[in-house]
Amino acid sequence: MQMDIIQSIVSALPLGILPFMLFLPLIAAFAVIILGSRTARAITMVIVIIEFVLSIILGLIVDPAIQLDDPTGGALGWQFTITALATGENPPVLQILLGVDGLSIVMIILSNLVVLIAAISSNHIKESKSMYYGFFLMLQSGLLGVFMSIDLFSFFVFWELVLIPMFFIIGKWGEEGAQHAAVKFVIYTHFGSAIMVISFFVLFFVAPTPTFNMVLLRNMGLSPEIQIGFALAVFMGAGVKLPVFPLHNWLPWAHVKAPTPGSVILAGILLKMGGYAFIRLGLWMIPGGFARLSIPLAILAVFTCIYAAFTAMAQTDMKSMVAYTSINHMSWVLLGVSVGAAGLASSDPVLQSAAHLAIQGAIFMMFSHGTIISVMFIMAGQLKYAAGTREITKIKGLLAKAPHMTSVFILAALAAFGLPGFSGFIAEALILFGAVTIYIWAGIIGFGIFLTVGYILWTLNRMVFSDPDPEMEIHEASRSDLIAPVLMMIPVILLGFWPDLVLNFTQSVVAFMLGGSP
Amino acid sequence: MIFGLPYYLILVLPLAGSLLVPVVGKFSEKLRDWTPAIIMGITMVLSWSLLAEADNPTGTTSWVWIEYLGINFEMLLDPLSIIMAVLASTLSFLIYVYSTEYMAHEEDRDRFFFLMLAFGGGMLTLVLSNNLLIAFIGWEIMGFCSYGLIGFWNDKRNPPEVEPDPIEYKNPLLQFETEGQYNTHSGTKAFIVTRIGDAFMLGGILLLFTFTGTFSFSLMSENFQNWWGVMAGIGMLVPTFLLIFMGAIGKSGQAPLQVWLPEAMAGPTSVSALIHAATMVKAGIYITARFLLTIVSAQAVSAGDGGGGEHGLSLLQLSGADVITFFFIVVAVIGAVTALLTATMGIASNELKQILAFSTLSQLGYMMLGLGAAGLLAFYGIYAHEVLNLTELHIAYDKAYLSSILHIISHGAFKALLFLASGGVIHAIHTKYVSKMGGLKKHMKKTFAVMWIGILALAGIPPFSGFWSKDSIIEYSYELMIVEQEITSHGGTLFISVGWLVFLFSVLAAACTIFYSFRLMGLTFYGPEKTEHESHESGHHDGSDEDDHSKGHEEEEHHSTPHDPGPAMMVPLYLLAAFTIIAFLVFPFIQNFLLRTEEEWGVILQEMIFVKFSEAGIVPFMITLGALALGGIPGYIIYIKNADRPNTFVPETGIRRKVYNFLRHRWYINEFYYWILNKYLNSAEWWRVRVDNKIIDGIDFKSADTAKEISRRVRWFDDHIVDGFAEGVSTHSVGASESGQAVQTGRINDYVSVIIFGLGIMILVILITMGVL
User: Fold this and answer.
1) What SS3 state is found at B440?
2) What is the model's pLDDT at position B308?
3) How confident is the model at residue B338 (pLDDT cuts 50, 70, 90)?
């Protein structure tokens, strides 16, 4: 009965649910800019809530077993041709082509969730609100576009669409030194994207049938040399976003200087674009190419994890510690992807099932990290308002002075180092099980867990459980500031006990990748 | 059930109701105090209504619990369960009513009444569950509640009351600064000691599950053939049951885990009554009885099915009945040892409630003994019939089992009575030591009367309830001895013959019991009053000034002369006293109910009385009477008749003093455990200081410092080399483009130049990839 209502809602949407979700924020963005600052937050809240509800509906109506094997995007697919260049036999068709499978749905739900939380926690933005929320909604469109596109051209368009609003959000509403950080962010990511886009065009021409359509490209089975070249290019583009060593230095800058909601979106969902690109353009589209890069990527992932853990330990700014934690966690995604790729290429059923675990773990890690790190960033941002500083060494006795805020913070910190009962543990466990089965030495990443536990507890020790400094004023965070993090803790804990909520979506996609390698 | 209500209400009401107690406390203190009594009252009515439905329930008794494992939540409504449920709920109800007055001036009653009600709920869960796992949950609920209740007065900051003529303990674990410390220690001790048993028990339960594939008692007896032979064949039968019995040893305070119960007196008196009479310690007896039933009835049925012929014989030989007798020997011997051991400890104890605690332990020993004897009789009976063909030998195990259960009931009633009455005494004169009491019969006439009834029942004087049940246990231990003789005389072989030991111990324990019972009465109610002059009497002055002061202060606050408590405390006492007197009129009903027979009430009553003078019964009866005289007459002379004179029975030196000290120290068993514990703690401390702190911690700190140092350097590397490289590239390219095109703004320049740079690298990469081609 409920499903009937949902179905009728979906069928009533103009264009179809995917394009509606995609363009609604974009249109609303212009409306927000035109209508001015007074209504900006209200409109944005309405839009992001609608978007979130729609993404849940999307999760409900789509059968997780459905796969993207139809070049037009399947039942929910939608396509819009921008232009067909009239050159020769197989003209490049520039089009927007949308379609979803379990993987995309997980990412869409995550991005709408993170955007919703970021919108709630935008309550400290006071300056030129209409512009801010305009960019904010534009950003949402871009994110959704990336996860919905099944066409390399539209993928790239949305990939780049994300950059512009993010650049302004960091630069204009960030802290002192934000401009530098914003420029750095754009240069780094654009550097990667540029390499990636060139590889898209090269691929178009070297493919047996020239096309941008991912499904077609996957089905035609590219030759191994092309696959390796493309994989390297994807690695550049996605590796910057993820990020991996040594392409990571934009991240601490951007995260630290950005306003809190900016950091939340950056860490919560922008990094996941990298992970998503690895899986969608890599494992899903050209499994053969990635399989050959498996060992170097896995080594890089393990190294990044430990490197980031060490760097995080030495940070004194809370936000940059969280930022490095983010790098640390995202390297798990890369590990899952790389060992998954090795398993994909193998015909050994043991390795295949290990790869199954690892890839599911990578996807789960993206979701779980998106939720956990959002809370961490919001709490780190609150510190600035509560204590006037984010310096770990200066803040003392937080628990005694601001118990409510601190308890949320402690929970998030426990989740961040993967305590059982929180979603992070499931993710790390899945990846680790898969990884050590395929490469026994990948277990070294366990040292990264150990370091992470160490520095997070050390930070808690110094900040939270120390004796209060009588000269330092620390205020309790107001109730409205705690709504967003508390809401975000719900999926963290829920997934810790019920990981199937996400894994149900990913299972068949991963099985499809494993089974259908061309 | 009554009104067609679902059966599970009996467990759910008290357990869920306990959670309501603090909520009710928010609205009304008075109502909160009465909530447990009201809820348990309803539960009691429901339990009584079960009596009509034993073995043929009218409603659903099974609900799916864990579908995956095929485990159901089932309720067991056989006579044993129902009797236990009726006993537990009724006594709990009376105790809760008593508590409303007894605890009226205490702090933290939310906690108290919550735990009390949950305690009762735990016991009902245990006895009514047909699922061993759920029974174990009830078992553990009780463990937790006992921990909370024994240590209930955890906040008492005054030093513990100074005992006249105290035992000096050297062990640092036995030194207590405040009363609160002592109380919490006692609670923890109870919890830990019973947990030792529980751990074994859980192992046994799981082991049993591995072989039987079920947690359900009824399925276990139904599928008897499937697992019994297998387990006996690989020798797991006795270990498994012994493991489960370990749980019963812990909970029911059997030797060697009897040490927790005397200290459990630290809790409020109503708690002691609840633990001793209605719940907790009866749990172990119940679970043993339950297994006795499961094993014996199934065994008897399968032996009987063979028609006494070849089949039964071969089954018996296969099925390890000879092995399981070993289990019952252990049960009987442990029961007998406990009965005597703790009875002797009771002789020398100086705390009013502790004497009662020892008496409980001793009576529990009797119950265990009765169960063990029942099991042995059952198997000897089968053995005699099937193997030796002694068809004329009539062995009735079920009467032995019956007498154990009757003892549970009668003990429950008179022990609740004794505790509640002594609670009134302690309440009135503010000391727990009998040597500080005396002469109370003038002031507390009603309490004095009911206390005598309880004491006579405890001592086993006819016609009070204790006599009937205890004496028949002694009789059956005598019968066990006779049966063993019969079997050996007819050429049968026994594993070991324990009948004489069991009988001897039970008789001696009866003598001790009556002695300390009279001592208790004499010291408490007879002789001169001592409370006002305690510091002179005790002959013991160290640090008692402060103590006296606080004591005097307390007495000013309350009434100066001791008096009988009010109606909420007295009415339960009258009810219990009435039952104790007329119990023998009720026992025939219970016998019919429990053994599923339908004999005339008068016939059973006659049999009950005349069996004492029958050919078989006269010998043990006379021996018992002799034992009662042996203990009772000196007890009466020393403590009651000569109560007004100074007591010189135990001189300062000599053999009597040595025996007395040995008993005072409780055979040094308790202290021995503490000595081991202390040694262990010392060696752990040594390990911590020498090894853990120095070496392992040293390594930890060193590696932490190293990690910090590495992290500092890695950060420097990250900031200066990795980031520095990128920044350097951009600065230089900005510089380069600025020198070329000074018009552009820096930012766009940056952007474009790096794009160009990126494209360059891109092309390189592509060329390389193509080159690979």
Assistant:
1) helix
2) 40
3) very high
For A169-185, what is the mean pLDDT?
87
Above 80 in pLDDT, residue A202? Answer: yes
Q: Report the C-alpha gap between B607 and B599 in whole angstroms.
A: 11
How far is residue B565's CA from residue B679's CA, in Å, rounded to a whole number? 46
Which residues of chain B make contact with A232, given a CB cutoff of 8 A?
765, 769
Quick one: which H or E segment has residue A81? strand A78-84
Helix (H, G, I), strand (E, B) or coil at B22: helix
Q: How sure is the predictor about B531, in pLDDT bands with cuts at 50, 70 and 90? A: low
Smallest Cα–Cα separation from B49: which of B16, B90, B14?
A: B90
The CA angle A508-A431-A193, to the nearest 5 degrees, is 80
Q: What is the pLDDT of residues A122-132, one digit of tens each?
A: 888 888 888 89
Contact B9, B52 (CB under 8 A): no
Burial class of residue B60 in the structure, from the number of CB atoms within 10 Å of its CB (0-12 exposed, 13-18 middle, 19+ buried): exposed
pLDDT of residue B688: 85
pLDDT of amino acid B315: 45
Q: Residue B494 pLDDT more than 80? A: no
| Residue of B730, B754, B765 lying closest to A232 (CB–CB) | B765
B769 touches A at CB < 8 Å? yes
**Strand, coil or helix: B648:** coil
Residue B578 burial (CB < 10 Å; 0-12/13-18/19+)?
A: middle
By the 10 Å C-beta count (0-12 exposed, 13-18 middle, 19+ buried), A174 is classed as buried
How distant is the Cα of A369 from the closest Cα of chain B, in angstroms?
23
As a whole number, the mean pLDDT across chain A is 87
What does the pLDDT read at residue B740? 63
Q: What does the alpha-carbon distance between residue B231 and residue B212 come to, in Å, rounded to a whole number?
A: 9
Q: Angle A403-416/A423-438 helices, nearest 10 degrees?
A: 10
Q: In this structure, how many other beta carbons lie within 10 angstroms of the beta carbon of residue B415? A: 28
**Nearby residues of B337 by Cβ (< 8 Å), 6 or more positions away:** B255, B365, B505
**Distance separating alpha carbons of residues B505 and B368, to the nearest angstrom:** 13
**Domain regions of chain A by residue span:** 2-514
Q: Measure CB to CB from residue B714 to each of A232, A249, A307 and give the nearest one.
A: A307
Q: Which residue of B has its CA nearest to A190?
A: B755
Of B264, B260, B235, the C-alpha closest to B250 is B260
- Enclosing H/E stretch for A368: helix A349-387
In 3D space, the residue among B553, B673, B678, B573 whose CA is nearest the CA of residue B262 turns out to be: B673
- The nearest CA of chain B is from the CA of A225 a distance in Å of 7
Instruction: Identify the band that residue B543 occupies on the pLDDT scale cut at 50, 70 and 90.
Output: very low
Residues 6+ apart with CB under 8 A from A489: A375, A408, A411, A412, A415
Q: A170 — contact with chain B (CB < 8 Å)?
A: no
Instruction: Name the residue with tokens 């809530």.
Output: A49
Q: Judge whether B750 is closer than 8 Å to chain A, CB to CB.
A: yes
Q: Which residue in chain A has the smallest CA separation from B751?
A: A187
Residue B538 predicted with pLDDT over 60: no
On chain A, the residues whose CB falls within 8 A of the CB of B720 are none
Look at A310 and B707 and tell me if their CB atoms are within 8 Å: yes
For chain B, give the percent of residues with pLDDT over 70: 89
ipTM above 0.85?
A: no
Cβ atoms within 10 Å of B557's Cβ, excluding its own:
9
Average of pLDDT values for B716-734?
A: 81
B712/A314 touch (CB, cutoff 8 Å), yes or no: yes
Would you state the pLDDT for residue A226?
86
Residue for token pair 């933290």? B108
Task: Provide, as residue numbers in chain B, all residues whose Cβ is less than 8 Å from the Cβ of A190.
Answer: 751, 754-755, 758
- Closest by CA to B442, choosing from B516, B520, B524, is B524
Query: Are A203 and A233 within 8 A, CB to CB?
Result: no
